[in-house]
Amino acid sequence: MNPADRQVIGWSLSKDMKAENTGMAAFKQACRKHSPDDELVFHSDQGVQYACRAFADKLEDQDASQSMSRKGNCWDNAPAVR
Q1: In a domain, 9, yes or no
Q2: Domain with 73 in it
Q3: What is the CA radius of gyration of the chain?
Q4: Would you say 42 and 66 are in contact if contact means Cβ atoms under 8 Å apart?
Q5: 13-49 pLDDT tens trace
Q6: CA 38, 17, 47, 5 torsion: positive or negative?
Q7: How far from chain centre, in Å, is Cα 19?
Q8: Cα–Cα distance measured from residue 24 to residue 5, given in angstroms and rounded to the nearest whole number
Q9: For helices 23-33 and 53-61, angle between their N-to-C axes, nearest 10 degrees
Q10: Is residue 5 domain-resident?
Q11: Is residue 13, in this structure, part of any structural domain at all?
Q12: 42 DSSP β-pair partners
């Protein structure tokens, strides 16, 4: 599978917005399906579940770069360029 084929490889449903129940759970699932390489860029909005220290630490553990959209500009999430 091409890692840039726009398929959903990790997802999570939660009754709260805690990072460990949302973004981190989905990221862990994705990492189990596809081992990230050293050029992984994780792009998201600036939601608290992505901006918290715990999520940043999880990305750092995987040597992933974090990319976030500008505040109030949801169209930033369409392309992600390193």
Answers
A1: no
A2: 19-77
A3: 12
A4: yes
A5: 999 989 999 999 999 998 888 887 778 888 888 888 9
A6: positive
A7: 11
A8: 21
A9: 10
A10: no
A11: no
A12: 66
